[in-house]
Amino acid sequence: MSAEFDFIDLFAGIGGIRQGFESAGGSCVFTSEWNEFSRKTYSANYKERNDHIFAGDIVPYDEEMIPDHDVLLAGFPCQPFSIAGVSKKNSLGRPHGFECTTQGTLFFDVARILAAKKPKAFMLENVKNLASHNGGHTFQVIMHTLEKELGYHISWRIIDGRYFVPQHRERIIIIGFREDNDFSLNDFKLPDRQPVLKEILHPEDGSEKVEQPYTFGDMARVHSKYTLSSNLWNYLKEYSERQKAKGNGFGYGLVSGNDVARTLSARYYKDGSEILISRGTNANPRRLTPRECARLMGFDDSFIIPVSDTQAYRQFGNSVVVPVIKEVARIMKPYL
């Protein structure tokens, strides 16, 4: 069956945006992702046509070599604009936003491809802080580029993934169409109910198939390696107390099955502190397994995780919430 529209997948990560637009009948004709571990996960999960190009770094890539397409998709790197990224760069005396030449200017690679290929539409995804970064100036530059210089009609909205998955995850979605139409992100529909963590956690009661190395035994219990050591748990509790004494809100996020988690970040592999699963009052909490992280981002259990836990945590922490993108694709499709 032929595709209903073609798209390209830039800064593709592990393909969460691609999943959303394939669900709406689209076909990916070009992919770009520079990270070797993300490329490994992406390649393990998506079948490519014979003529499909899987490029690495998009910066030196000639835009004229990119196939024609209906929709450009890009979750361009967000670290230069994220609250955590800006704070870290400020503390190190490093530039951020568009002054961060290694990542912040990657938006302009999106712009040069839009200028050359003139697709019918695009969808960009980034952190919520993009809208307010540098007093709003960064966002003004992006909007001016997309609207005034490239001539696209823009709709944007900040969407919290918690309506689709049990995780607070606010992201900005920017849609552009070359032709003027009545498309609006106000048509984006939220589910009737909000999920909670127990819907994505391993039940550990034998009702779930064992998936090594994450779960073991007749009851498919979570491997003990995901439980925090007493040293790490005590450190996190002491650190949290010190921060509270200073009036800061920083600390670990201890949650149970009926809760909604904080935002999963790419640093989760370090100590798991933002999402720790309670094991009861007298037991140390545990990290999420990579499979639970996949579910927390809306990937189903058929999604292959061919990399180490460290790389998997980074990849899911950098991913989009797949059902959010599916809904975006659904409402864009009639205008393609």
What can you see in these coordinates?
This protein is α/β, with parallel strands linked by helices and 336 residues long. The chain folds into two domains: 5-191 and 321-335, Vaccinia Virus protein VP39 (Rossmann fold); 197-314, DNA Methylase, Chain A, domain 2 (Alpha-Beta Complex), CATH 3.90.120. 29% of the residues lie in helices and 15% in strands. The chain has ten helices and eleven strands. Residues 79-104 have low confidence and may be disordered.
Average pLDDT, all residues: 90
Report the CATH superfamily of the largest domain. Vaccinia Virus protein VP39
Give the terminus-to-terminus CA distance: 18 Å
Query: Roughly what fraction of the amino acids lie in strands?
Result: 15-25%
Structural class: alpha/beta
Q: Low-confidence spans: pLDDT under 50, at least 5 residues? A: 79-104
**CATH architecture assignment name of the largest domain:** 3-Layer(aba) Sandwich
List the helices and strands and how they pair.
Elements: E1 5-10, H1 16-22, E2 26-32, H2 36-45, E3 53-55, E4 71-74, H3 83-91, H4 106-117, E5 121-127, H5 137-149, E6 153-160, E7 170-177, E8 215-216, E9 221-222, H6 230-245, E10 254-255, H7 268-271, E11 276-277, H8 290-296, H9 309-317, H10 322-332
Parallel strand pairs: 1-2, 1-4, 2-3, 4-5, 10-11
Antiparallel strand pairs: 5-7, 6-7, 8-9
Helix pairs in contact: 1-10
